[in-house]
Input
Amino acid sequence: MTETAPTPQPDLDLPDSPDLPLDMAQSSFKPRFSLQSVFVGLMFVFMYLPILVLVVYSFNESAYSAAWEGFTWEWYEYLLSDSRIFAALRNSLTVAMSAVVISAVLGTLMAVGLARYRFPGRQLYLGISYLPLIIPDIAIAVATLVFLAAVGLSLSLWTIVAAHIVFCLAYIAIVVSTRLADLDRNLEEAALDLGATPVQAFFKVLLPQLMPGIVSGCLLAFVLSMDDFLIASFTAGAGATTLPMEIFSRIRTGVKPDVNALSAILISFSAVLAIIAEWVRYRGESRRQ
Output
């Protein structure tokens, strides 16, 4: 008894194209939802949903944030005519820019000195230099206030600057140190062998390579200084109200749409600075490679 081979039957569900492989023709797109993607989605919702609600309610026509009553630009226009907001913004910009400029110089020199030179007590100094990163803000605020009272200095806008230099210096130094660890030290030695002085080698060889790290650290410190409320409230003198202090004084009686609008502007401003900092870091890494 002979067996005949079964003849293949045409699949009526296949597409008409003869060039399409059989396994691809039989496959169909099915969205995959893994546990990791669900977790990432929930994490982003938890982090950014409150910010999205704040931005939406900054356009609320109601004078209170309890219920939505319609779309309006009124609260953003109201901020443009608020002199107290502009005075507080001017104080915050003065504090942040002064603290960042001084911290950029001191932080860069500190990072270069710790990385390039060996001296007694270097490890101890290295650990103490970065302590402000882990010390609570309330401790820095109280310590600064006690120190200013001990030396007899009256509180003013510049005492806020002095307090902000403490943590801005640590943030800039650690970013510059990270950048410094990836640089080729042979370039400086080559410049010295070619007749350059140590100062010329620093400004013409090392500093241009450190500039992306310095700019990124400055932008990070600037945002942190602009957002600081606790240290500024302890060290501010009369008439030295910063923007976070002004916002806190307004929400004591409830969150109003003008505060929502101001917060939305600050969030947008911080996001732009973060994007610029990341772009500067990316350009620096691309040029170095």
Summary: The chain is about 70% helix and 0% strand. The mean pLDDT is 82. Residues 41 and 271 are 20 Å apart (CA to CA).
